[in-house]
């Protein structure tokens, strides 16, 4: 059985990072096909790391996709952001050492962004660095964590505080896995897809406006293109700024407002993508008030965010000061300026630290709540 | 006060690793001089990490060497290889976060190899990588850990199993710190110095034969040159093979036998350098039996190892099978060959995996014990 016979949709995107370049394979029927995984296994030892939610759904398929001569170990971690700790990564290291895995072993990260971040970090530091393969199973991780090489864990005093930049050998995105994804999480992933259009690709944004129904009903061709284009746009930005010194900040469109919403509501109450959806609309409205966007642009932005099933309004109980404090702005120091990602046009974002403080506070006071 | 007025001896060696290149400053009176440290501080936040043995001796001096506008935090960890754990590195991360240190902070590793390895690893993974400066205070760490970028910690199932390759911004070797080093540890450091001569530099080896008394009585000029030449030789090898795929294995001369001795006696009973001393002599003797070295060469090797105050004989209670099992050789599988670092001449080492098993066992049976 060759690859072309088993997969109805198959696209490949190359992420160019010199000697750390790797392919992203996007398609249907990828899991369970040994021809897909085999080229990326460094040695004969593989550990599949997944979580309690994903294991019953896809672990068998990934195991079936292993060539016959490979020693396969499995590790199932708890699900959720609360498990994204150094202790969980230590469990991976314990399991690798207990199994006698050497420097030519390969880790497979099967799950969403939390699993990908932890397994990537475990690979970065096991014997000073071994290979790993990402198999992201949520739309968010497919379009976000697949590209960029950021790995790590949370610390009680901060998210993603401990980690490393470490690139996978390959990313396998089987869009069939989205069939089991809750619709709310699909929408949250679409927030990041829309973000790529807003910050860098007006044509892609127009395509998303037309194809949003196809995406929300999981049409494979539409999903594959949305994922490929998102990954390509992120890869362009990351290639320009691998270790996050400059342009990579554009990826934070909607995130400053979004993080404030997530933190104020308590993480997990709003999904990250939901907060980013509302946050992007806040950035669009602020961009209009700065004279960059037209009212028409703001309505287009609102329409596409809403069509993805995302909120357009901030939480009812969140006041101006709640926002300011979460954005680490001192109420008394009105000279203090915030570095924000804003939109010059739909399709071009900029880093801007000259927003007058009264304009920002006016936005926070008048932006719709629900 | 300028640098030249405060330091009687001052040498600088550049380690060339493209954008990760850094200088090694070697001299007297370096600690306590702000002009030395200042150029390598990335931001305004510095954490000095040291251990309980070194802190009372040199922490004040390093603190005095900080420019006045720097926020300095300190962390004192337990001394010894047993403290080289992920838990200790976690304490560094906890302290950095508690102090609100950002991505432009700098860690200073003040101590021997254990401190250097842990602080380097903490720097590699704090917010996905921050700057660090090595201030090695033992001869072994000055000539070994200063170059190579290996960082990490031990795991109950293996030494140095968790870690990263991460280069310092600079290495400051103040040879005054050797005045407080126990003489046995000075000898252990000299084992690695001799090793560099044996594997790669016959002229340096001849110089060591003449200057060993000056080194053991801590003559600054002699120490500075021995350290500089050792670091330069290691840097040449590391530059050829940064992530340890090939020629870097030559640095393991004497280490296969040495590790067997250390493990059999219990770590800490023989110092690493002592075991390497005896191990190098075993490698020299095996090289003679393979027809490469003359009897005269073996006697020269023995003389210089002995003159450094190192043992020339294996432990009395260690039999052939003790060696074989510690070297992971199966007694029954006589076809199995060991990859050893051996000497073609004094000053040129090779990687050799064709030593006949009976020749190896004969060496192990007949090598002197005490």
UniProtKB/TrEMBL annotation, chains A, B:
GO BP, sorted A to Z: amino acid biosynthetic process; aromatic amino acid family biosynthetic process; chorismate biosynthetic process
Keywords tagged on the record: Amino-acid biosynthesis, Aromatic amino acid biosynthesis, Cobalt, Cytoplasm, Lyase, Metal-binding, NAD, Nucleotide-binding, Zinc
Residues involved in Zn(2+) binding: 192, 255, 272
Cofactor annotation comment: Binds 1 divalent metal cation per subunit. Can use either Co(2+) or Zn(2+).
Coiled coil stretches, renumbered: none
EC numbers, comma separated: 4.2.3.4
Subcellular location: Cytoplasm
Keyword Zinc: yes
Binding of NAD(+), residues: 79-84, 113-117, 137-138, 150, 159, 177-180
Main EC class the enzyme belongs to: lyase
Pathway assignment: Metabolic intermediate biosynthesis; chorismate biosynthesis; chorismate from D-erythrose 4-phosphate and phosphoenolpyruvate: step 2/7
Keyword Cytoplasm: yes
Boundaries of every 3-dehydroquinate synthase C-terminal domain copy: 189-333
Pfam families associated with the record: DHQ_synthase, DHQS_C
Cofactor: Co(2+); Zn(2+); NAD(+)
Sequence ranges assigned to domain 3-dehydroquinate synthase N-terminal in this UniProt record: 75-187
GO molecular function, one term: metal ion binding
GO CC list: cytoplasm
Chemical reaction(s) catalysed: 7-phospho-2-dehydro-3-deoxy-D-arabino-heptonate = 3-dehydroquinate + phosphate
Function: Catalyzes the conversion of 3-deoxy-D-arabino-heptulosonate 7-phosphate (DAHP) to dehydroquinate (DHQ).
Family: Belongs to the sugar phosphate cyclases superfamily. Dehydroquinate synthase family.
Name the UniProt record assigns to this protein: 3-dehydroquinate synthase
Species, as recorded: Billgrantia kenyensis
Gene: aroB
